[in-house]
Amino acid sequence: MSPASTPRRYSPAQARRIALGALGFARGRPAATVGPRHLRAVLDRLGLFQIDSVNVLQRAHYLPLYSRLGPYDVDLLHRAAGRAPRRLVEYWAHEAAYLDVRLWPALGFRRADESGMWNGPRQVARENARFVDWVLAEVGERGPLTARQIEADIPRERSRWGWNWSEGKKALEYLFYRGEVMAAGRNAQFERIYDLPERVLPADVAERPDLPADEAHRVLVGHAARALGIATAPCLRDYFRLAAEPVRRAVADLADAGELVPTRVSGWDRPAWRHRDATVPRAVHARALVSPFDPLIFERTRLKALFGMDYRIEIYVPAPKRVYGYYVLPFLLGDDLVARVDLKHDRAAGHLVVQAAHAEPQAPAHTAAELAAELATMARWIGAQEVVVADRGDLAALLARAVAGALG
Length: 408
Known about the structure:
Order of helices and strands: EHHEHHEEHHHHHEEHHEHHEEEHEEEHEH
Oligomer: single chain
Radius of gyration: 22 Å
Mean pLDDT: 93
Structural class: alpha+beta
Low-confidence stretches: 155-164
Number of strands: 14
């Protein structure tokens, strides 16, 4: 990029539309049954679906497709991640994620660097390398296998809540981080099923060498820029959780190549970059509930700059101290986030429960009616027979009436 380059200027409203268009919210949901080509289109944009174990509503990796496509058969995702030729593989991308398999060679530098690994797996490998070799041989000989199948008899340390992994699980996670074993799928208990890379990766990917670190960062930063449309350097770093210095070099290289265009957004205190393929939609007519683990929500400073929304995940906040609720989804209407709802799927009762509903200051008058319609769509998708609205939050009463009117 020439020092004389003049950044292109955008208003906050234009920046929002650029971001929403790049992330796949400007097209509208398909009228036809959602199929593999729709999945491919979203995956091409995002590159990953973050995985999270919380299942109070629906597991996190299912929700980005729903937000953009509407109701779909989740077996589409299962097939892409669990059957050959795989389109998705698990790895540490943003966090744990289903990753576009084409990006696997770009994360070789991460697999080679153990500094980002949990201490438990790293310690097992350091102190008991022969045991790790034995676990790898077991997977090779008997795989695909879960950790319990490999090592059911080794006792777990149960004195601490949380990461009370057995030694076998730690060894598997070490090998998983290193790419020496991969996830061939998940079982009904959502446990990883481990196998060797050559039995998981498509042949054309398995045969490709890992990219050199600088090239890998250019690929990943370029992908993040294309997915986000408009972003600051910290946003580009956060998408794949990259280090600052290699991202700085990648941004400079991509700017020199014309892939990143210097940009200023009115009111932003950080310089930004627009991907050269990003456009400014004339309008965005979205209606979507957005997962806390959606790329739209990843970087909180960006979310605040684009939508004026202060957002935090309150899952680990004690219940009396929660402001908005346990599992809170922002509600996108048009080109703005206008509300947030704390949702729970009460599977025993067959209810989609709105435990709290709050409007954003700029929420339009028809927010409750639109949100009620979207909740009805989500309820059908997850198999709930009824939407139930609790009396919590400044939008709850209006939403309850809108839900009742929609059902009536």
